[in-house]
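Ops channel
N.P.: pipeline sanity check, posting one input/output pair.
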């Protein structure tokens, strides 16, 4: 291993143990959960739109 490689490995270990990294990973997990929830909602709404009867066109209101 070259001399500079050990410094890079040490830096990578420090980042891996970082509280900031854990916080970011936690946030990513939360966002992935929200994305999954929103995707499911969109799929449900899409199916509901396909199953719903078509809207009747409105006639213009007379004033």
């Amino acid at each position: 291993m070259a001399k500079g490689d050990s410094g890079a490995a040490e830096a990578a270990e420090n980042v891996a143990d970082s509280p900031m990294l854990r916080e970011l990973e936690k946030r990513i997990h939360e966002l992935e959960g929200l994305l999954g929830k929103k995707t499911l909602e969109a799929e449900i709404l899409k199916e509901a739109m396909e199953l719903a009867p078509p809207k009747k066109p409105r006639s213009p209101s007379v004033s």
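N.P.: looks fine end to end. The longest helix spans residues 19-51.
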